[in-house]
Every structure is written in C-alpha cells, then in structure tokens.
Design goal:
heterodimer; A: 201 residues; mainly alpha; 2 domains; two-stranded antiparallel sheet; B: 170 residues; 3 domains
Chain lengths: 201, 170
C-alpha cells in the first residue's frame, strides 16, 4: 500500500506544478518516476512515444501508463493487471485532482487578479522557465539507454541519424503540391519504428 | 483539443457564448495541470455546478484512459524487451522521441520572445535540472522561482510607473 501513496503524492505534485503544458511536465514526471527507479529510462521514453501517438493529453496518457507499469516493476507482488489497474486509476486521478479543485475554488481569485496584471506578471516570469523545462526533458532523454543501449558505435551513429532526420521532418515544413505541410509526430514515430525494425530487427 | 471543445460547446450545442468560453479559457490557462481537463471542469461548473464539473472532467479523461489502458495491458515492459520485433521497433523510436521534444523547445523559445536579458533563464534551468544534483535539480524550484521573479518584476515596474506619474504631477 505504501507504494500507492508515493505514486499519488508524486502525481499530485506533478498536477500542482504542471505549468506550460504536457512537454513542460515531462521533466517533472521523469524526475518523479525514473529518479526513484519506478520505471527504466527506456520504458519512460517508450511511454512518451506511445502517449504522443494516441489521442488525448500527454499528461493523462503518461499518468495512466506509468500508473499501470510502476507497481509491478517496483514490487513483483503488485504485478498487473489488477494492481496495475489500481495504479493507473490513482495516478490519473491524482494528476487532475489539484487543478480540478483550483478551477472550482480559485477561479474568482484568478479572474480578479487578471485585471490587475499580477497573473500576467507571474506568467511572464514562468514563460522562459517553461522553455528550460522542455529543454531539460529533451537533454535528459539524450542518454545511453536511448541512443546506445548495447555500447556499439554503429548503433550510436544510426540512432543519432534517426534523431536528426526526425527533427528535420517535424520542424521543417515539407513542400507538397505547392503547399508547405508540417508532418504530424505520429508519422515520424511510425517511420522511425519502421527504420528500427529494418535496421535492428 | 481546445478548438474541438470550443466547436462542440459554443458552435454545436450553444451551451455557452464565445466570450464566456474565452473568459473560462483564460482562467483555465492560468491554472496548472492539463489544460483540456481544466477547461472541461470550468465549463461543467458553469453549466451544472459541481456535478457538471465532475462529469465533464471524467468525460475528458476517460477516452484517453481506456485507450492507454488497452495498450498498456498488451505492451508491457517484458514484451518490449523480449519480443524481437517490438524491441527493434522501439530502438528506432527512442531517438525520434528526443527529436520530437527538441522541436517544441525551439517553438516555445520563439513564442516566449526571449531577449538577451532573458535568454539565460532557460539555459540555466535546463542545465541545472539535467545535471541531476539533488535539490537544485528539482523542476519545482525553478517553477517557483520563475513565478516569484515574474511577480517581483511586476510589482517593481508598477512602482516605477507610479513614481514617474508622481514626478509628472509635481
């Protein structure tokens, strides 16, 4: 039972300090769940990928997935499916509960301070921090388990190439029939998966 | 997701006016957590009070929850590690995920209109958090400092403005 309390506490914290959207929350999630060893670096990256490919907010998706996997990987006695289901329900509710109550009970307060400009001031300070938070999530994922799991130079080279190609595909619009379209992340992940299968499979 | 909610609630069902929606959105954006759930909670509360907000929040969470649960049941860490096909697919996906998070770094940096005076903030934050030095690497610390800094800057610039106004009166 102790683990579930830790899981709830971790996700309540993520909910309270989750400013700046799903990507900015990732560094907080990584510190809270990979740090204490609840899931591996690789599993975290995999869960981020799956959360990006499925509809719905990335914060909800990752909370549900991590809540399902974490109990079993911490203590084999808490193996999925049933203990995992409990974990996913608790983590998902814990991440939305703080903001749920804030919306219900702090809206008046916020509306009043919107006019005075206080909220705007606070967010002008938060905005550069949010950029740093997203950057820190990206830097933390640039690790050996993701880029060089087997310690082979050729795999490192292949993985860095995949990373650069994926970046170019999502960042630079592709000319298509006279228009410039931006590729959705789902297609980039699918192409990278196909490349992985052809190279490593 | 926000534009879908706007279409459903304002254009299709006419539950609230567009001005009201934009007002609720502004409040929901000032509250931490997941924006889609925040705006759903606010709209549910506006329409039916507490009961409405519970139903709206659960309705926003439930589809994602069920889809992910279905995937998580089949795609366990053991399957990803031991199934040859799945593990090779994920070996290719992992470096791409990193790229997908680098892209919003650049777009959010552009949106934040960083100047030479503020560009050090994200650099320091990213460095300190990713160095993994215990307390000083806690993202919460920087969220707190960022909010506090923004607040103090606001108070300071308002005071300076008032000071200038007084000088003008004299």
């Amino acid at each position: 039972m102790g683990f579930y309390l830790k899981l709830i506490w971790a996700y309540v914290k993520i909910g309270i300090f989750g400013f700046g959207g799903g990507y900015a929350m990732l560094s907080l999630v990584e510190k809270s769940v990979v740090g204490p060893g609840w899931i591996s670096e690789q599993m975290f990256t995999d869960i981020v990928a799956i959360s990006q490919m499925t509809p719905g907010p990335i914060g909800i998706n990752s909370a549900t997935y991590i809540g399902y996997v974490a109990p079993g990987s911490v203590d084999p006695a808490l193996a999925p499916p049933l203990w995992g289901l409990l974990g996913s329900v608790l983590a998902t509710l814990a991440v939305v509960l703080p903001s749920f109550y804030l919306v219900l009970y702090a809206s008046h307060f916020i509306r009043r301070h919107h006019e005075s400009g206080v909220i705007k001031g606070i967010f002008s300070g938060l905005r550069p921090v949010v950029v740093g938070l997203i950057a820190s999530a990206a830097i933390m994922l640039m690790n050996a388990p993701n880029f060089n799991p087997n310690g082979l130079d050729w795999q490192l080279a292949v993985n860095i190439s995949i990373c650069i190609c994926a970046f170019c595909l999502v960042f630079f619009p592709i000319p298509w029939r006279g228009k410039r379209i931006k590729l959705h992340p789902i297609y980039v992940i699918m192409m990278a998966g196909l490349a992985g299968y052809m190279i490593y499979g | 997701m926000i534009s879908i909610i706007e279409k459903e609630v304002v254009d299709k069902h006419h539950w609230i006016e567009r001005d009201d929606f934009l007002d609720l959105l502004a409040v929901a954006q000032s509250i931490p957590g997941i924006l889609a759930v925040n705006i759903a909670t606010a709209i549910g509360d506006r329409l039916c009070g507490m009961r409405g907000s519970v139903v709206a929040a659960l309705g926003t969470i439930l589809p994602s929850f069920l889809i992910i649960l279905a995937i998580a049941i089949f795609l366990t860490p053991d399957v990803i590690k031991e199934n040859r096909v799945v593990s090779s697919v994920f070996m290719g996906i992992r470096p791409a995920v990193v790229a997908l998070i680098v892209a919003p770094v650049i777009s959010s940096a552009k949106a934040a209109r960083l100047s030479l005076k503020t560009v050090w903030i994200p650099l320091v934050v990213a460095l300190m958090i990713s160095l993994d030095l215990g307390m000083v690497s806690n993202p919460v610390l920087y969220i707190f400092l960022g909010g506090l800094g923004g607040y103090l800057h606001f108070v300071y610039s308002r005071r300076r403005l008032e000071g200038r106004r007084k000088e003008g009166d004299d």
